[in-house]
Amino acid sequence: MSDDWLWGWHAVEAALSNPKRQPPMRLLATPDRAQEIEQRFGRPKALEVVEGARIGQSLPPGAVHQGVAMRIPPLEDWGLEDFQPGPGAVLLMLDQVTDPQNVGAILRSAAAFGAQGVILQDRHAPKLTGALAKAAVGAVDRIPTARVTNLSRAIETLTERGWRAVGLAGSGQRTLDQVMDGSPVLLIMGSEGEGLRRLVAEHCDELARIAMPGGFESLNVSAAAAVALYEATRVRL
User: Fold this and answer.
1) Which of 1, 2, 63, 179 is deepest in the core (most CB within 10 A)?
2) In whole angstroms, what is the distance from residue 141 CA to residue 14 CA?
3) What is the DSSP letter of 11?
4) pLDDT category, 214, cuts 50, 70, 90?
């Protein structure tokens, strides 16, 4: 099985709707889904009408494909220079967050809260396909993503361009709501196990923590990202 498959209706629909996508190499759909696709997009050349069991044979065990799956070339990455640091702008950076479900959920939140984009690491981030794209519910094609080799160097580049780098860490002296001031912000999230790596944290302008008055100081990284994006959005309203 190739790792460039998308499955699930929302992921496939968003990819077919994205003018920046190349045409699919294969598009497998049940009769009902094929009819939906033709009504929305005409009949793609790659469309094959098959039974659901046949679709499952092309995918990992347990993949919930909802009657449609597509093999398609990857999206082109954005460059750091494509992100503009206007008032209230928000970028998200993920430091070795490797779980596809978490990254997919983070992309979904980033799209929902109007972030400019998400920056991932080249070697320590999953591909934007498969289970990740399914969890993102179409956000892979709605939120710009950039991949960089060195996060610390990327932070330097972005801060030179006018972004303020704020790392999420339990050791932060101020809470996130106290830190947000409406200036263009680069929010940096670490992995669930290790948090921000030392060198990445040292490149931040400030470390901030999420206020948790309940006293249970542990959030899934995708939940923490949603809270951070909400706080950034509140400043902009």
Assistant:
1) 179
2) 6
3) H
4) low
